[in-house]
Amino acid sequence: MEGASMSTNPRTVDEVFKDFKGRRSGMLKALTTDVEEFYRQCDPEKENLCLYGFPDEAWEVNLPAEEVPPELPEPALGINFARDGMQRKDWLSLVAVHSDAWLLAVAFYYGARFDKNERALKRTDLPILEEGHPRLISEKKCFGDIYRKRLFTMINELPTVFDVVTGKKPVKEKPAVNSSGTKAKSATKVQQVTQAKPAKPAPPPPKDEEEPLDDEDDEEHGDTFCGSCGGPYTADEFWIGCDICEKWFHGKCVKITPARAEHIKQYKCPSCSNKRART
After folding, report:
1. Domain residue spans in the chain?
2. What are 220-268's pLDDT values in tens digits?
3. Sheet with 248-250: strands ordered across
4. CATH class of the structural domain 224-278
């Protein structure tokens, strides 16, 4: 089965985390920007189908692996059977939470085999004595546990697929603050986040070089995530907001450039555009 055999066999914490993010991005695409195609492929008349995410950020709906036991843990079986028996959003939410469970299963399948002699631990990974000196770990069996704990911490900093699909991580629109200190309201949500445009506020308010607002910006926009890939807000990327569902997206995820955005009066994300087309 093609989906099960696409394995990169990562060995280190960073490699496993990279594999996790790639598979997660692929599943998010299936459930957000590519949702119409995903919905079409999940035909209830077909046999048991699974949703697979791959390290290269691709996704696939396919039959489960034939070999027993499979090379990797398998995702939820038969997601297509419930498609027409539930509300669409409830069905997508169900697939999303099962996708989260599968992503963790694959990550910890690799994590369970971390080599005890893989590499020396970073100083920050080591327990600290009261004197402030790192304690030497003589028991190598501790290494795998620390690697897995570090892996889970890295994974836990990302919103889950379920959070992104269901909007549990809402994007709060923040009013921009101009140089006079007054708040400016926007008529649309398109902006190059590295520039201050009072008429089109981006997720963060514009930075004022005379006022140290960096810490405040980080706190206010820590809950801003891309509605497509689920990635967190970064100030050096272009973002665009949907005027229908009010979710924010990386411009590259929805194929919108800053130049093109300047000519858009009301932006609708791919999901909202598809909904409007069906009605």
Report:
1. 13-119+142-166, 224-278
2. 556 778 888 888 877 788 888 888 888 888 888 888 888 888 888 888 8
3. 190-191, 239-241, 248-250
4. alpha beta
